[in-house]
Amino acid sequence: MRRTGSFLGLVGLILLFFGAASYLLTGVLEPYSAIHLIVGTVLIVVYLAGSFRDLGELLSARSTRYGANMVLYSVLFVALLVGVNWWGAQHNERFDLTEESVYTLAPQARQVLEGLDQDLVFQAFLEGGHDPTVERLLDSFKTSSPHVKVELVDPELQPEVTQRYEITAYGTVRVAYGEQATTVAQPTEESLTNALIKVTRAKEQTIYFVQGEGEPSIDDAQSADGYAQAKKDLENEQYRVEPLVLIQEGKVPDAADVLVLAAPARPLNAHEIEAIDVYLAAGGHAMILLPPRTGTELAPTLAKYGVVLGNDVVVDQVVRIFEGPALGLNPIVETYGAHPITEGLRERTIFPLTRTVTPGESKPGLTVTSIAKTSVSSWAETNLDALFEQSVATLEETDQGGPVSIGVASTAELEELGLGKGQARLVVYGTAAFANNQYLNTLFNRDLFLNSVGWLGGQEELVSIRPRTLRASRVQFSRDEATAIFYLSVLIVPEILLVLGLAVWWRRSRL
Asked: Is 467 within the bounds of a domain?
């Protein structure tokens, strides 16, 4: 009977411990806590009532010491957890262990935040003043810079603030930096980062896309070859995007910060080539995207800036399951040159139907870098007739083996080269398809394209890896589900294991 009483006493201590732990952790006297405290107290009273005379002997018994040690270790473990949580509250350090880095801002956002020299204020207008999803997102920005301030506004309690900023919907976030401010109706990391760029940028830059010779339209959102998605992504980063019919205008506007020429279907005439040449010689910045068999008339102009166009098509040998080796005309790029455009870019990009673009002869005042190279299994096929007419490509001695360069960035000090005044910047890729509607958001093509524009326009703070839609790495639970998981994992399961262990010990000790 005494042994049974000892067992009940130890169970009572366990119940009291978990009842008290539940109350301390939740701050609420839930039924779980109340039942444990009551039942635990009753068991201990029963034990004391039946064993009062033998209390001294019991306290010195080996079984009691084992039980007391077990309870002591449990208390110390909980105390350790409380101490770790207290230290974490005092030292604001975050470690993102999720597979897709859900709780870490993309490099572009962090890079822009690092350049802040005054406070950036996020005002979130939330129903009831709270929204866990929005608050968690804004907290990611806040922990990335001491200049970021977050204000949660309940429109019902602060109608004057809501009316002042003309807020009409819950969930709207106002982003303010100095005298500049904008609002975001559907806050995501990408939309807030774009708003951050907008309010911190000193000047809006203008990007002109050459049109008139069959180039992809920047307003074509329907066809795969259109550039409407590129235009949208540029506008999201606060660029002004305009078409330029060069054959009509006769010159590149003085307001052009970057000129883009992509895949002209017809050869450029002498006046168009001269306009591009004059623009570059005046310190212009241009991106030239020339697929195979196009733009050969531009080769002399590009050669002055150290860029050599190949009369070829890059072929990559790919292996398909159950089919063996096959020829691929959409090479994957994983190797990038040391250049601001590709700094931090470690992910893959795809270049559909591309030619080689390689650095030319080095000259004083000219810095030319190959920024994208294909794999070692690729080669530059020069027999274009056999490739396009017979779909046959074979690596011959006259072909250049991989890896081959398909993208080049050039910086020209014009006075030193005797070409003009100032500094010209040029980026040339051997395909235009990598930035069209079909492929721009494939792999990391968008980052490479926008980084190229950012570097050309001197917007180094925009040259980075951007936020993107992530595969879900978290699960949203309701309040009841979260409560059930908490009780099961933190209290109930450990309690059951502890009681079962005590029962096994008690049973074996009787043998």
From this structure: no
In this prediction, residue 282 carries a pLDDT of: 95
Residue predicted with more confidence, 338 or 81: 338
| Contact of 126 with 136, CB cutoff 8 Å | no
In a domain? residue 358: yes
Amino acid at 305: Y
**Mean local confidence (pLDDT), 182-207:** 86
Instruction: For residue 383, tell me if it sits in a domain.
Output: yes
Average pLDDT, the chain: 83
Question: Helices (H) and strands (E) in the chain — how many of each?
Answer: 17, 19
Per-residue pLDDT at 113 exceeds 60: yes
| Domain boundary residue, one of 199, 215, 249 | 199
What are 226's two structure tokens?
Answer: 């259109």
Q: pTM for the whole thing?
A: 0.68
Checking 483-492 for CB contacts under 8 A at 24+ apart, the result is: 487/22, 487/32, 490/25, 491/18, 491/21, 491/22, 491/32
d(CA 302, CA 388): 26
CATH code, 158: 3.40.30.10
**Number of domain units in the chain:** 3
User: Are the beta carbons of 372 and 449 closer than 8 angstroms?
Assistant: no
Q: What are 287's two structure tokens? A: 């991106």
